[in-house]
């Protein structure tokens, strides 16, 4: 993965290369690169395989409004860049009771998620996320 992203020239190439490599390495339904600005609450990202602009238009407002409900984003905001899953940071599954889980993750068939934090400036959370295929992540 490091070799693939080291050859990139800009953020778009970096996000795409990282997502493609994570998708290749981990049995995922999809992978994503996300940036969350904790001050402005703005969320941006890249998803692989690319679902089309309509998908982003349908979900952008909800993700922007509720992104911090994702326990992985909250965990990454603490500065920990380790690889973690929902099961690691939310062992009681309280995230499944949130609006974000019900209205976005459940609707899109995402049952679990892993994240790899990327170093960045304070107040900006960046990470590659993988949405594993069912039963590929053990609790």
Short account of what is shown:
With about 140 residues, the chain is an alpha+beta fold.
Describe the structure.
This protein is an alpha+beta fold and 139 residues long. The protein has a single domain, classed as Beta-Lactamase, CATH 3.30.450.80. 37% of the residues lie in helices and 24% in strands. The chain has a 5-stranded antiparallel beta sheet, sandwiched between helices. Helix 3 packs antiparallel against helix 6. The chain is globular. The two termini are 25 Å apart.
pLDDT under 50 segments (min length 5)?
135-139
Adjacency order of strands in the biggest sheet: 2-1-5-4-3
CATH architecture term: 2-Layer Sandwich
Which descriptor suits the 3D outline?
A: globular
Strands, total number: 5
The CATH class, by name, is Alpha Beta
Oligomer: single chain
From the alpha-carbon coordinates, what is the Rg to the nearest angstrom?
A: 14 Å
- Assign a percent range to the helix content: 25-40%
CATH fold naming? Beta-Lactamase
Question: What's the CATH superfamily, by name?
Answer: Transcription factor LuxR-like, autoinducer-binding domain
């Amino acid at each position: 993965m490091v070799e693939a992203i080291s050859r990139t020239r800009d953020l778009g190439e970096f996000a795409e290369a990282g997502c493609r490599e994570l998708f290749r390495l981990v049995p995922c339904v999809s992978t994503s690169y996300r940036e969350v600005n904790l001050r402005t609450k703005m969320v941006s990202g890249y998803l692989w395989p690319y679902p089309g602009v309509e998908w982003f238009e349908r979900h952008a407002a909800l993700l922007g409004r509720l992104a911090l409900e994702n326990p992985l984003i909250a965990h990454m905001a603490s500065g920990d860049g380790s690889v973690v899953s929902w099961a690691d940071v939310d062992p009681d599954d309280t995230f499944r009771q949130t609006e974000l889980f019900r209205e976005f993750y459940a609707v899109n068939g995402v049952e679990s998620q892993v994240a790899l934090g990327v170093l960045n400036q304070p107040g900006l959370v960046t990470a590659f996320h993988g949405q594993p295929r069912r039963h590929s992540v053990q609790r």
